[in-house]
Design goal:
The chain has a single domain, classed as Rossmann fold, CATH 3.40.50.150. The chain has 6 helices and 9 strands; from the N terminus they run αβαβαβαβαβαββββ. The chain has a 7-stranded mixed beta sheet, with helices on both faces. A two-stranded antiparallel ribbon has the order 7-8. Helix 3 links the parallel strand 2 and strand 3. Helix 1 crosses helix 2. The longest helix has 13 residues. The radius of gyration is 16 Å and the shape is globular. The structure holds S-adenosyl-L-homocysteine.
């Protein structure tokens, strides 16, 4: 796994999704070297950089041009990116031109989550996996309900990670913000 502190960051771009969360996402995705992955809302490129090391191909989309540029810089910094395509567009627009998806990660959707999930469902191969990360309670509920409507059997895991800072007087645990990882598999 890459180290959070090694990522180039920008104050206008959220991310990277924290290391422990990226590890759970990779594990839940059941990624293989033949998979085509879409990272919708790539932000700083945390998820993109991890998947580019173990998938066949990654297509990363963000509405924010600066997110695309930061992701590109991080891929370069880590010596990755040969198998990554970056698209500066809304997820719903970009996804309508992409087929044959094995794994769709939705880390940002604005108010387009339902739209994005409709298109992902159309383009996802059988046995394909959908992974949504959500911080807002409302997004969690919206994601679960939409996946149910689309005929999936969604699972949701709320993750609370605290990292220890070793001080002279003891170990101080510092918590990260809780995040839900919602997963579903196409039958
Ligand atoms: N997983 C990322 C962080 C994602 S932050 C990382 O590890 O770095 C969420 C991102 O989603 C933001 O950069 C935001 O610009 C993008 N976003 C929000 N709505 C979007 C949409 N409808 N389509 C594409 N990207 C979107």
């Amino acid at each position: 796994m890459l180290d959070d502190k090694d990522f180039i960051k920008s104050c206008d771009v959220p991310g990277p999704t924290k290391e422990a969360i990226r590890a759970i996402i990779l594990y839940k995705s059941e990624v293989t070297s033949s998979d085509r992955v879409v990272d919708c809302g790539c932000g700083t490129g945390g998820i993109t950089c991890e998947f580019s090391q173990c998938a066949r191909e990654v297509i990363s989309i963000d509405t924010n041009l600066e997110a695309i540029e930061v992701t590109k810089s991080n891929l370069k910094k880590f010596g990755l990116g040969d198998n990554v395509t970056l698209i500066n567009d809304d997820g719903a627009n970009a996804l309508s031109n992409i087929d044959d998806i094995d794994i769709a990660v939705v880390g940002g959707s604005g108010r387009q989550l339902k739209n994005i999930l409709d298109i992902v469902d159309e383009k996802l191969n059988s046995q394909g996996r959908i992974i949504i990360t959500a911080i807002l309670v409302d997004t969690k509920v919206e994601a679960i309900n939409k996946l149910k409507d689309l005929g999936y059997n969604p699972k949701i895991m709320e993750v609370n990670v605290s990292n220890g800072r070793v001080l002279d007087r003891g170990i101080l645990m510092i918590s990260e913000n809780p995040i839900a990882i919602i997963t579903a598999k196409k039958r």
